[in-house]
Amino acid sequence: MPILVIAEHENGAIAPATLNTVAAAAKIGGDIHVLVAGQNVGAVGEAAAKIAGVAKVLVADNAAYAHQLPENVAPLVAELAAGYSHVLAAATSNGKNILPRVAAQLDVDQISEIISVESADTFKRPIYAGNAIATVQSSAAIKVITVRATGFDAVAAEGGSAAVESVSAAHDAGKSSFVSEELAKSDRPELTAAKIVVSGGRGMQNGDNFKHLYALADKLGAAVGASRAAVDAGFVPNDMQVGQTGKIVAPQLYIAVGISGAIQHLAGMKDSKVIVAINKDEEAPIFQVADYGLVADLFEAVPELEKLV
Amino acid sequence: MKILVPIKRVVDFNIKVRPKTDGSGVDLDNVKMAINPFDEIAMEEAVRLKEQGKASEVIAVSCGTPLSQETLRTALALGADRAILIESDQELQPLAVAKLLKALADIEQPDLVILGKQAIDDDCNQTGQMLAALLDRPQGTFASKLAFEGGQVTVTREVDGGLETLRLTLPAIVTADLRLNEPRYVTLPNIMKAKKKPLQVLTPAELNVDISPRLRTLKVAEPPVRPAGVKVPDVATLVAKLKHEAKVI
């Protein structure tokens, strides 16, 4: 049976995490269908049809699916799921919001944030903030899974030529409504997809000092992240948080500045290819995972680093 | 408004657990256990709503072994009015917990259920959403702010790009994010008072719920170990190493 991938999209564009999710679907094997649910999502459907390896795109264009309200989208997915062996979505805030609801409607378990596919029914996922990796096997008729994007290399966004079909089913539970959103604007690359990430922690002392990290990030073409301590102290907004409860990143280079390296933070970045730590406390746990550690005052080291790169 | 707050007994968040050598799970012998941090936030929110006169009763519920009574006493000391333990020695997966909570919600008829957004042991982030689906109620997940008005709750949610605000019709399900509030400390007088508060014990059989695990854990292993790194003496060496050795910039 084919595999259904729920497309993640915003502002009329496919989100990069969808490409990693399609890659996970390809590892399972079988025809891959992509569902694009939303309002005015014709262009997204066309973009989804171009993703390499996708056989069919289902477009559910309806006002009820605007803003991806789970009360409306989950019944749609549950209804479509009957014809599929697997239903996959990226482990983004949207995927995590909708898929467990789908699973409960189907009376099956849901498998969260898989990092590898062992076989069509067996998957690996991190537990205990990434301190252990569980291999789990599901006997459910329909496997409902969220995919950790950093665990799979993205498939090509171009090259496919899938058929596009429209889905007329409209579900409007009428129990929830969208009021507003407040999205952080930035010219820097998106945190979860960036090749280089520069992150600051409590050691930054205040929000204004993050300007040193922004300057370094701009020179490297990097995204800027933060530890929970920096977010809770109000230095930066919460969508910049990297960790167990924030975003999971695995860039080529992760530069941790003034971050001690609590278990919860490491959970979000320890799969980075190269980790650099800059901290004045040489006992900080971050040095245990850093490939290159520099014991120095960040207020001297970061501007110097910016000059030299 | 009656509020139900499900809580879970988990390993303390500061503890770095290790998988057992036989791969059957993680070693939790003699490890400090505590209330799941997200559930503590959920309980704090419920207690604040009661203090503001918006909630009439706060019920803490936990599913698990008799040891979870201890966690429920903590919830009572934080301000819950009464507690219910659904006792089971079996492994409980999110769908089973959601079904138990649904059965309990059918009896208690809460207007609001506040859960933590995820437990820090299984890291599933599923139970609240599943409960909402089973009860056919709206959900406000990853909440960082709640406001109540005329049979509705306005929920500000933490989403990938920033914040999103939704309006849900009560009864509803909310899952708490870290930034919803700062939980209070339990005081000794409150711990003493909590000992006198009612704690009811039920079984899954009494609620007529099948809790058999659907997902089989084949193995629990250590994550790949990163080889030890090096300390560099200065910024210039760091840049040189990143350019020529790691070739990442």
UniProtKB/TrEMBL annotation, chain A:
Ranges of residues in domain Electron transfer flavoprotein alpha/beta-subunit N-terminal: 3-182
This protein's UniProt keywords: Electron transport, FAD, Flavoprotein, Transport
Cofactor note: Binds 1 FAD per dimer.
UniProt-listed InterPro entries: DHS-like_NAD/FAD-binding_dom (IPR029035), ETF_a/b_N (IPR014730), ETF_a/FixB (IPR001308), ETF_alpha_N (IPR033947), ETF_asu_C (IPR014731), ETF_asu_C_CS (IPR018206), Rossmann-like_a/b/a_fold (IPR014729)
UniProt-listed GO biological process terms: fatty acid beta-oxidation using acyl-CoA dehydrogenase
Names of the cofactor(s): FAD
Gene3D superfamilies per UniProt: HUPs (3.40.50.620), TPP-binding domain (3.40.50.1220)
Highest taxon, organism lineage: Bacteria
SMART domains listed in its UniProt record: ETF
A GO MF label: flavin adenine dinucleotide binding
UniProt: FAD binding residues: 202, 227-228, 241-245, 258-265, 279
Role description: The electron transfer flavoprotein serves as a specific electron acceptor for other dehydrogenases. It transfers the electrons to the main respiratory chain via ETF-ubiquinone oxidoreductase (ETF dehydrogenase).
Subunit details: Heterodimer of an alpha and a beta subunit.
Family stated for the protein in its record: Belongs to the ETF alpha-subunit/FixB family.
Protein name as annotated: Electron transfer flavoprotein subunit alpha
Organism: Pseudomonas abietaniphila
